[in-house]
Design brief:
There is one protein chain. The protein contains 6 helices and no strands. The protein has 190 residues and is mainly alpha-helical. The chain has a single domain (1-177), classed as Growth Hormone, Chain: A, CATH 1.20.1250. Helix 5 (123-148) runs antiparallel to helix 6 (159-175). It is globular and about 55 Å long. The mean pLDDT is 86.
Amino acid sequence: MSSIIVDCVFQLHDMAYAEIFPLWAVSPKKYGGLSYSSADIGKVLTISGFGLLFFQLFLYPLLERHVGPILVSRMGAVATIALLSSYPFIAKLSGLTLTLLIDSASVLKNVIATQRQRGSAIGISMSVMSLFKALGPAGGGSLFSWAQNRQNASFLPGDHMVFFILNVVQVIALIITFKPCLVLPEDNVL
């Protein structure tokens, strides 16, 4: 049951991010976005997909064998927090530097986000995660819309607030991977 809760919180974060990233990328630079077109976002997501395929086929099995799935999840959560904190600053770049960084960030985010769902094949887990998949985009879209109206706030203006709240959810997910929230089976096999 504890692993289902962990998966659900990670899934809520991932679905909110999936809603926020395209909205942020197409929003104008004056609102902290990238001013990307839909075609540009499609290219970024295509590159991310290939990066994810490469990672899952070649790197993840080795990493999981050496450090275990829980530590891989924790490392992914910490890397996600650092990565999302950099997004508002990446938006200040332009040209080739912006393209390379946003493509790299998108690949990294996709690679570290999907590994936690491995093994979540039981029915109740999938049902509850589906609920969180439904709530994530609605919450993410509302959060992004609200943040666009606070571009001149003195504390976490605009997109800084969006990525801060995503990071708060990720920190909660990271915390619940530790005892007593995540209870390991007696044989320590996941």
